[in-house]
Design brief:
homodimer; 329 residues; alpha+beta; 60s Ribosomal Protein L30, Chain: A; Phosphoribosyl-aminoimidazole Synthetase, Chain A, domain 2; 2 domains; 6-stranded mixed sheet; 4-stranded mixed sheet; 10 helices; PurM-like_C_sf (chains A, B); EC 2.7.4.16 (chains A, B); thiamine biosynthesis (chains A, B); thiamine-phosphate kinase activity (chains A, B)
Chain lengths: 329, 329
């Protein structure tokens, strides 16, 4: 008797894992005509809006290590992408998730990643509409996120003009200090569960002229904004907001402002706007329940000058390179 | 003198590599308002159409090995995604590319990947609108591809009905045999430079009732189509088209039809359609310059029955699992 081909069962592994992974994710949402399971998702884009699309990966040993729970990894993989949507002033819609992991990875670990990713997706009302699984040497999660923004209202990096004020959300340096052994829980949480500033980004669209999210470090990302806008920035180091937990840890560092200026992964927003719009921006931030501080100004020229508390120029901190493993502090 | 912060130059590594990588890619195209370089791309979706979105990864040691050139890797990473768009009947628009590679990867290898990817993108008029680079233990390329399809015309897996004919494009088993040592160049090319059946997919939209692209193997993928449609398939093994190069190699195998039925990565399309539409489908395929063969029929029930040349049932070949390294032949 031939082995009946009537049941060409999917090999275990792949399809079962996909099933277990997707169970923890929100698969339906606005504009989702067809979610995961076919050759592609089918999506109805909102009429009259542009789409904002970005891709980012988190890789074991590079962006996270054994101190991260699986849930942290899943949360962060999506959150860093939503931060890019936030900095454009876009509202998030859909994500696609490519998961890679070594043979023998416990299914529970992958389910943990899915739970963290699902929690972040639900918190921001985004549907996971597609995905892929593959073997690899280490765990990684590559997320493509798509959002929508009213045509002509996106916050580009290139819109800053001399005379603009620079404003920044939240606090800086927490995520970098959250990597240090024995760091306070509040700082660890900033490192592992970043909160994308989506409400603020949308509130600033139409108010600010330019924005960027701070993934690589405040000075470095402000430098990108200056480069794209063809302007210079003067950063008032003493005005850069820090948290109480940050200040308690950082006061023993040789450069107590170093992590705030140079540490990456805070996923705060920095925006440039004309002084006449500051009051509107502050009201918008209050509605979004996010603190907003003036941290400097835009001038003619190029590059970022940093003024210390004494008003004198101070040196730049070192930056953050996603091609390198997290630097030890 | 403080080190002047005026030039917080991006660390070498990351930004220079991105620059070198993107130079080989088509970055502009239909609907691209803003390509790579800002926090997200900005894209204008075509009015009145749905978007088709998919993500797929190729990983060193899993989907390719040292016999692949860097150009092959880049080509295949995009082509496998375009095949998913093809099977939905969508026309390709945009891609986002997440590249991961080990420290010390020669920049020339990454440029080779970009050239292969760029060649495939140009061949199919798709713009690369965003990307990401990261360290990892092995080279991998994760591509998200987005296309457009007229609302209600997408070719789902779930539309097949009892009485439909099953048609298949091109030839089967070539890519699997292309992995064998000393394989003829024509078969090697099928493995390393798959040609997504985009023109055929679009031509079949509105003609066929269901379609799938064959990445995991004909019997296995036909099984997915049957599962999603709630039907059974009878596959006429002798009608499955094979190439002359395939037949020369396969005649010495214990099961000469094994790779054609079970080998993955041919990226041909299989579609189900009512017999009355066969002539239209054949004309559509002729316009797309792709051979189309009737390989079986859809019945009530579930699963795939395979009939051998003698009309008797034959056993199923083994499938293909993307979580496993390419099986030796």
């Amino acid at each position: 008797m031939p082995r009946r081909a009537a049941a060409p069962r999917p090999p275990p592994g792949e399809f079962e894992l996909i099933e277990r992974f997707t169970r923890a994710l929100p698969l339906a949402g606005a504009g989702v005509r067809l979610g995961p399971g076919d050759d592609t998702a089918l999506l109805a884009p909102p009429p009259g809006e542009d789409l904002a699309a970005t891709v980012d990966a988190v890789v074991e040993g590079v962006h996270f290590d054994a101190r991260f729970t699986a849930e942290d990894v899943g949360w962060k993989a999506l959150a860093v992408n939503l931060s890019d949507l936030a900095s454009m002033g876009a509202r998030p819609l859909w994500a696609l998730v490519a998961l890679a992991f070594p043979r023998g990875t416990p299914p529970e670990r992958l389910e943990g990643v899915a739970r963290g990713l699902g929690a972040c997706a639900r918190a921001h009302r985004i549907a996971v509409v597609g995905g892929n699984v593959s073997r690899a040497s280490e765990l990684s999660v590559t997320v493509t996120a798509v959002g929508a923004v009213r045509r002509g209202r996106a916050l580009l990096r290139s819109g800053a003009r001399p005379g603009d004020l620079l404003v920044a959300s939240g606090t800086f340096g927490d995520a970098a200090l959250g990597l240090a052994p024995g760091a306070p829980a509040a700082l660890v949480r900033r490192q592992r569960r970043p909160a994308p500033r989506l409400a603020l980004g949308r509130a600033l669209a139409g108010v600010a002229r330019a924005a960027i999210d701070v993934s690589d470090g405040l000075v470095q990302d402000l430098g990108h904004l200056c480069d794209e806008s063809g302007v210079a920035a003067v950063l008032d180091a003493a005005a850069v907001p820090t948290s109480a937990a940050y200040r308690r840890v950082a006061r023993s560092l040789p450069d107590p402002l170093g992590p705030a200026l140079g540490g990456g992964e805070d996923y705060e927003l920095v925006a440039a706007l004309p002084p006449a719009r500051l009051a509107r921006a502050l009201r918008a931030a209050a509605r979004a329940r996010v603190p907003l501080a003036v941290i400097g100004r835009v001038e003619r020229g190029s590059g970022v000058r940093i003024l210390g508390a004494d008003g004198a120029e101070r040196p730049a901190p070192s930056g953050h390179d996603h091609l390198r493993a997290p630097r030890p502090l």
